[in-house]
Specification:
Blueprint (H helix, E strand, L loop, with lengths): L1 H13 L10 E5 L4 E4 L4 E2 H14 L6 H33 L2 E2 L8 E3 L5 E3 L6 E2 L19 H4 L7 H16 L9 H10 L13 H10 L10 H32 L3 E3 L2 E3 L1
Antiparallel strand pairs: 1-2, 3-5, 4-7, 5-6, 8-9
Pfam family, one: PK_Tyr_Ser-Thr
GO biological process, one term: signal transduction
InterPro entries: Kinase-like_dom_sf, Prot_kinase_dom, Ser-Thr/Tyr_kinase_cat_dom, Ser_Thr_protein_kinase
């Protein structure tokens, strides 16, 4: 009965949503109790496990370590571009319609056949009709759950932002937040004592690390909106693109300048 209720809620929400990064609803079979949705081939959780295995295959040293560092940087940017930004766009779209997802995690982020990111499993999602209303109740996955939900306090859209901060961290380090901790430990260390995942260079630039901290702060009112998160990610990718272009120009510069001169706005070699 609960499953059918969640299915009905999911169908009602999805029939009004149209976003490239949210799973599409094509038909509803109420008597059979199933929805006809976009086909997804695997989840972000699956992809992270794959990336982690690939990341541990080769451990270059010496002169190769610089190449490894450059590759890691490009890989982080790629994941920001193809995963973090699309998820932020999808969440911005949901929040603009006052829909709280309530279970944002890699297992609920899927890949279509063309590798497009799709949010799915809207069984716990709800629409906040009254702008002054706040949700209550213990809902979601503890590992990614905002403290105010755990404490059964009133909560709003910013609870999704907290979850996004942890997804962003996991996407960067390829490890689950609080790996090795059981529910009791997470409740004590994270929810009560306020511990958060460790930040390091592997997490990305200072700007990205700062964004993670802003997202998972215990003070819900201090968390950024997804509009600001999207802008921060776009700015980061833009800066990294410019920096990469400048680096390539510096590396190629001496060869390109050798035996060349400029006259009348044209370069001759």
């Amino acid at each position: 009965e609960i499953a059918l209720k969640d299915l009905a809620i999911e169908a009602k929400l999805l029939e009004h949503l149209d976003h490239e990064n949210i799973i599409g609803l094509h038909a509803v079979a109420c008597c059979k109790g199933f929805l006809l949705l976009d086909r997804l081939y695997h989840t972000l959780e699956d992809r992270i496990l794959k990336w982690r295995r690939e990341d541990t295959i080769v451990k270059p040293t010496g002169i190769l370590s610089r190449g490894k560092t450059d590759l890691a940087k490009k890989t982080r940017d790629y994941r920001l571009q193809t995963v973090a930004l699309p998820v932020a766009k999808a969440m911005q779209y949901l929040h603009s319609r006052k829909i709280i997802f309530r279970d944002l995690k890699p297992a609920n982020i899927g890949y279509a056949n063309d590798d497009t990111i799709k949010l799915f499993d809207f069984g716990l999602a709800r629409q906040i009709v009254d702008s002054d209303r706040r949700m209550t109740g213990f809902t979601g996955t503890l590992r990614y759950m905002a403290p105010e939900i755990y404490d059964s306090e009133h909560y709003g859209l910013s609870a999704d932002v907290y979850s996004f901060g942890l997804v962003l961290w996991e996407l960067s380090v390829l490890r689950k937040p609080y790996a090795g901790m059981g529910p009791t430990e997470i409740a004590d260390e994270v929810m009560v004592k306020g511990h958060r995942p460790k930040l390091s260079r592997k997490c990305g630039t200072h700007a990205i690390q700062g964004l993670m901290k802003k997202c998972w702060t215990s003070k819900a009112e201090k968390r950024p909106t997804f509009s600001k998160i999207r802008a921060a990610l776009e700015d980061e990718l833009k800066c990294e693109s410019v920096e990469q272009e400048q680096q390539e120009q510096q590396e190629e510069g001496p060869q390109n300048r050798r035996g060349s001169f400029t006259f009348g706005g044209f370069q001759f070699r």
